[in-house]
Amino acid sequence: RNMSSAGPEGRKKMRECDGLIDSLVYYIQGAIADHEPNDKATENCVCILHNLSYQLETELPESYAQSIYMQRRNISSNDKTPGCFGTRSRKVKEKQQDTPLPEEKSNPRGVESLWHSTLIRIYLSLIAKSTRNYTQEASLGALQNLTAGTGPMPFAVARTVVQKANGLPSIRTMLHVSHPTVKKTAVSLLRNLSRNTSLQSDIAREVLPDLVSILPESVPGSDTVCETTASICYTLYNLTQSSSHNARLLLSADGLPKIIAISMNDSNMFSKASRAASVLLYSLWSHPDLHSAYKK
Biased composition, Basic and acidic residues: where in the chain (predicted)? Predict the structure, then answer.
């Protein structure tokens, strides 16, 4: 567990170690099957996998990058050829978002397991069944890592979490735990998921009222709470930017007074949260059909 957080070279060596990832996954599967999701060894295994999934998209070997990402059917040869994981242009990102992953291998080995739906479902199972905060945080954090990039893999993982594995109810529960870093990681995961336009209606329906409910009335003096509040605002921004329906949902959940209060709290300590709230307010005003409701 300690070695897996030693930096990119350490992660690379551990991902390449024959049988290591497979053994970690095997152990966790056994713990879940034996109804023992709270033992210390399971926590250690999940924390290792969490660390090994960090920056996975950018650190994958060239061979994997080519086999996973060469389905850029809609990118014309006239476009500037993106690297293994695409350029950061919106045009390429939109096209990548619609590009499916190749069919999953039924028996993934080694590094292939890190983004496979089997492990995604294991993380969601641990989020639902474990009561250890570190296990919950590491499971959420691994999914956050896997959904953090801009290529097809993060969007495919996001679709698996939301639509194939029905993971939103478990993630929603983590929004209401008392442990601040677990809550922060759950919100950060939802922020990543909410970037995928095809999932926004599902996410809004399932968790938007919960996100509004955990917004503070004003930002308390804690860095963790400030960062969590900023992430909630950016998640709500993603969900409402192109959807008047979702903006109305936010309004009906009494989110507007909270967002206004946070946006006006402009001391240096809270600037990250107040800036995010201001960006959200600006976006909400872009729905003219809601202006009269806002004014009321």
Answer: 94-107
